[in-house]
Hints:
By secondary structure, this protein is α/β, with parallel strands linked by helices. It is 43% helix and 21% strand. The strands form 3 sheets. It has a 5-stranded parallel beta sheet, with helices on both faces. A 4-stranded antiparallel beta sheet has the order 6-7-8-9, with helices on one face. A 3-stranded antiparallel beta sheet has the order 10-12-11. Helix 2 (36-46) packs parallel to helix 3 (62-70) and helix 6 (159-170) crosses helix 8. The chain is globular.
Amino acid sequence: MSKQTILVVDDEQDxxxxxxxxxxxxxxxxxxxxxxxxxxxxxREYKPNLVLLDIMMPQMDGIEVCDRMRDDAELKNIPIxxxxxxxxEKTEVESLNKGADxxxxxxxxxxxxISRIKAVLRRFDGNEEKIQKLKVHDLEIDKDRYxxxxxxxxxxxxxxxxxLLYYLASKRGxxxxxxxxxxxxxxxxIYVVDRTVDVHVRKIREKLGDHYIETVKGVGYRFKx
Length: 225
């Protein structure tokens, strides 16, 4: 498909119709599924540029769909935006920790929704132009394969953990506050809480060791020189 393709997974048929109509007006190809299992199948078959995903759906909820996609080598780098009626902070944090790229609460105007979709797509278009490897300390951080190599071990971190590690390593020795990290890794128009950064740093430390990323009390984090 020459156009960018959006897969919309939601069990509200009226909403699917509305989103499809407006996305097609903006020049996107649109795929649609009304349950989580079909959503994963279509993602595997068509490899869309982005998935717009509801949480409360039959057969498989959106959180599990996101989790499975992030564990699938063929799907793990596809951007995911949650569009859901659930607005509690716990659900938002869980969704982002599973690897979602944005979390949008229904109802939202189609104009704002399309703006958020385009913002996420722009970030990933930009990332593709800057693929490279970083070698810091005993780590090789390969952005082409989203792989971290430490000695003879290979670690495939979830995407947001990888991108946070990559960003900090590329600025090693420099302190970055939580808001800057949220803006650089999640995007400056994504509404997530500061705690999201702390959770991702903790998970990186659990996998790679706690001697790479240093906490600067009252400020933020830095990758050690």
